[in-house]
Design brief:
Helix content is 29%, strand content 40%. It has helices at 125-128, 141-192; strands at residues 2-10, 15-23, 32-40, 44-52, 60-66, 69-70, 73-78, 82-90, 98-107, 112-113, 117-122.
């Protein structure tokens, strides 16, 4: 945006006139990040967050930090002035009971990092150790339940096959008896002729 300004300065003895040309160059702004919600899963944390960038720049790079150490995740953003982003961020390993998750965005237009949006994440003992209930001999209960279901299915299949074999044998015996009666009738009919 350009603007021309005329500056007049005068005194009783002298008068001056200056022409000023003002050129305003717009500069891109650093994006502003806000974390809205987090949902802790077994192996990741889902984060819903926003990027406010009035410059409408889409050339972002994301940086995830767990207590200042690099983290990994996938991101998807939508929107214009205010982009809403969803991220699935892998949980660090090893991890402390409480860690700080930070999200930063690099804006190519500004050539600078955004503010650092942070949230403290507390890991419960249940999340750190997945359910591994065991039986007295050391097998997990899930494995025992799965083995029981497989055994029941095998028994049902065995009885089903056995029942079909018995039916086939009974049908064969009935057919053999019918054939022997038919042979006897044919023999009697031949004998009479």
């Amino acid at each position: 945006m350009d603007s021309n300004i005329t500056l007049n300065v005068s005194s009783p003895l002298e008068s001056y006139q200056y022409y000023l040309e003002v050129m305003i160059q717009p500069q891109p702004d650093v994006p502003e990040i806000t974390i809205l919600t987090t949902t802790l899963q077994e192996s990741r944390i889902d984060v819903l967050w926003t990027i406010m960038d009035p410059d409408l720049d889409d050339t972002y790079s994301f940086r995830i930090l767990w207590d200042h150490e690099n983290g990994t995740g996938t991101h998807a953003c939508t929107g214009d002035d205010e982009k809403t982003c969803a991220s699935a961020i892998d949980l660090p390993s090893p991890r402390n009971d409480t860690m700080t998750l930070s999200i930063l965005v690099w804006d190519e237009a500004v050539n600078a990092w955004s503010n650092e949006a942070k949230v403290d994440v507390t890991f419960s003992g249940e999340l750190l150790q997945p359910s591994t209930q065991t039986t007295s001999d050391g097998l997990t209960t899930t494995l025992v339940y799965l083995a029981a279901v497989v055994i029941i299915l095998l028994i049902l299949v065995f009885f089903s096959i056995r029942k079909k074999e018995v039916e086939i044998i009974e049908n064969n015996e009935t057919n053999d008896a019918d054939e022997s009666q038919n042979i006897g009738l044919l023999e009697r009919a031949r004998a009479k002729s």
